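User: Need the bound-state model for copper (II) ion:
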Amino acid sequence: MLVSLPSICLDERPCFTPMPEDFPIGPDASRPASLRFLILVTLIAVVVALWYLASHSLRLGREVHWIASTTPCNLHGGACTARLGDSVLAFEMGGEGPIRAQEILPLAVSLSGVEARSVEVEFVGRDMDMGFHHFALSPGEDGVFRGEGQLSFCTDAVMPWQAIVVVETADGRLGSRFDFDVERPGR
Ligand SMILES: [Cu+2]
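Assistant: Bound-state model below.
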């Protein structure tokens, strides 16, 4: 892109450029198009930077006490659990069959030995940024937190994902991470 800067006269002698008939007069006259373009670019950069900051500070993972998941675990086949003392967190996603991208996935988190105020699930790509996939679950009458989630489509044949489950309790936040891979449909 070519940006032309206004020519500046540095000569001591009075320099005079004949003013064209259509020379803009008014506030815009002191702001050449290139300056307005630079202001616009700066504003866009500031907005993008703020959006990036906001989306990252919203992500789960701040001040969370992480519990290791119990291995081996296959989320395609059923619930995965994480244990902390007498407390157990069980996470289940998807219905029958393998977990697929772009399908509505039922999510369920059941807890024992922990009183949860809220439960949230986030999906992140393990080896690539796949965007923001954050879902809040609601408590059911049976004490199980449920919701729906969705994974974005990936052009890779196998996409390595991680489900991050964070539970808000009166004593702070507890969390666990569960790895799973999603195969591209038609494979
Ligand atoms: Cu991907």
